[in-house]
Design a protein that fits this description.
- It is built from four helices and 17 strands.
- It is of the alpha+beta class.
- It folds into three domains: 53 residues, OB fold (Dihydrolipoamide Acetyltransferase, E2P); 78 residues, Nucleic acid-binding proteins (OB fold (Dihydrolipoamide Acetyltransferase, E2P)); 85 residues, K Homology domain, type 1 (Ribosomal Protein S8, Chain: A, domain 1, 2-Layer Sandwich).
- Strands 9-10-11-13-12 form a five-stranded mixed β-barrel. Strands 1-3-6-5 form a four-stranded antiparallel beta sheet, with no helix packed on it. Strands 2-7-8-4 form a four-stranded mixed beta sheet, with no helix packed on it.
- Helix 3 packs antiparallel against helix 4.
- The mean pLDDT is 85.
Length: 232
């Protein structure tokens, strides 16, 4: 009787979550007094109510991944970062700046504030606590003068292509810098609405036809067609 898995654990369809005096919530089903998960997701047990947050299409952090995040809040010594995941990531002050700073006297919003977009590396994650990020590595840090686009993280490998063939072709054809995060986010170093709109069309095509052959050729044809309209 009781909880069979810990709250915030990853569960699969058919997994037994709890037994006894619990209430079934979203994305669960019951058999007698047992509650099971109906989807692949994140288990959440609160006030004896069992809910599952679906993870199909969500990003699950992995150590070493480069992700594009958005600062959403801060404490005196860290920032909270939306990484397009059920998990809110944490960027500690010590993992953001190379120089020592007296956090008791400094307002960390001087360095990063809500709404800022960053490219960061996941340096720690164990599914039982928030992912930890760092922006100390090469090319990491705040992203400026561009546009953020979010799409399904499960489509990232298809958009990258074999050995980077797809994303490199897109960069070459559009002649603009594109940064891709493993968490289903792209940063385009362009504020040209026509270029941004074309990238959105490319992503929609990849999401809709990622399971079909000849996708790279279709994307290239779309770029050639749309670029002709842009150049006019």
């Amino acid at each position: 009787m009781g909880e069979k898995v810990r709250s915030r654990s990853i569960v699969f369809p058919g997994d037994l979550i709890a037994e006894g005096s619990f209430r079934a919530g979203a994305y669960t089903y019951t058999e007698g007094n047992k509650i099971f998960s109906s989807v692949f997701g994140l288990c959440e047990i609160k006030n004896r109510v069992v809910n599952i947050i679906p993870l199909q299409g969500f990003y699950i952090p992995r150590v070493g991944d480069n992700v594009i995040g958005v600062i959403i809040d801060n404490s005196p010594t860290s920032w909270q970062v939306d990484i397009n995941s059920p998990y809110i990531a944490v960027l500690q002050f010590s993992d953001a700046l190379s120089k020592p700073v007296d956090v008791a006297r400094e307002d960390i919003r001087r360095y990063l504030k809500s709404g800022d977009v960053i490219l960061a590396e996941v340096i720690a994650f164990d599914k039982l606590r928030s992912p930890l990020l760092s922006i100390k590595g090469k090319d990491l840090g705040r992203l400026e003068n561009g546009t953020l686009i979010t799409f399904s993280p499960v489509k990232v490998p298809r958009l990258i292509g074999r050995r980077g063939s797809m994303i490199n072709m897109i960069k070459k054809e559009l002649s603009c810098k594109i940064i891709m995060g493993r968490n289903g986010r792209i940063w385009i170093s362009s504020t040209d609405p026509q270029i941004v709109n074309l990238v959105r069309k490319i992503i929609s095509l990849v999401e809709e036809e990622s399971h079909l052959p000849g996708l790279t050729d279709k994307v290239k044809s779309l770029i050639v067609k749309e670029r002709g309209n842009i150049d006019r």
